[in-house]
């Protein structure tokens, strides 16, 4: 028999997680115990809990009541955004695996899992939607789509913009990709289909594997990525080493005609340095779907700029991607259990 604990939330139901758990290739019968983490709040309110756990980690939020006792005899733990804290892992005497049906792992105490040698499997549950959205932001910012709409809605017919002297088609631009994970590879695939030249920087990318995957991308060093790209799109994880990675020194490498796109994490960018660069037109513009404070303050300096496109953290928000993510997790776990390796296995490095 296998005991699986699942924890649902406002975005992914415990019932869907339960169904996925019963389809795991593990010892039968499968006993599933369900818990909830802020499942009773609205999706809008739940974004506050998302920001809280992404910023502060699993040790600074409440865990489901009663879960510690159940974890003592659990074999598998499946969550979406719910915390997997050090205390939870320490109470899990026989836990074989932790699975989370999202790409980010800020809500999991990875060090605690490492110390107990418990593998962690995650999935990019909204890779396709975010990749689509990233391309959309490139068009929206470089061609002033959102700005033109905004002005028309205010009764203004505006057809002159701050980037007029730089405007060109996407096919005439070089797009630089920072980080080559699941989402960014899909971005590259889309850019390849449009005959857009792609540069990329990643410490862990395998050039041979990229070629095998049919992706056309020129690997460059970090400085070259920012100095030669017309558009730089961020797709890296946030670690203590790369917080504020894109600061004034990096931005000063960029062309005055270049753009910065961020659908990843706000902490990759030094906020003050970006705003300063936009105010002084050291770069042509930026498009952001993630912010240092969400919702954005009504007095935020970003709202006063004419060369930004801002969206309310909706890049991965489609009707099917997030609610059905437990089935992606099921497939990733089964693949790992069958082969002993997986691209979705979180590295403990």
Mean pLDDT metric: 95
- Strand adjacency order, main sheet: 8-7-6-9-10-11-12
Instruction: Supply Rg.
Output: 21 Å
Query: Structurally, how many domains make up the residues?
Result: 2
- What is the CATH superfamily classification of the largest domain? NAD(P)-binding Rossmann-like Domain
Q: CATH topology of the largest domain, which one?
A: Rossmann fold
Give the biggest sheet.
Answer: 7 strands, parallel
Shape descriptor reads globular
Helix content: 25-40%
Helix/strand class: alpha/beta
Q: What is the percentage of strand-forming residues? A: 5-15%
The H-and-E topology, N to C, reads as: EHEHHEHEHEHHEHEHEHEHEHEEH
Q: pLDDT under 50 segments (min length 5)?
A: none
Number of helices: 13
CATH architecture of the largest domain: 3-Layer(aba) Sandwich
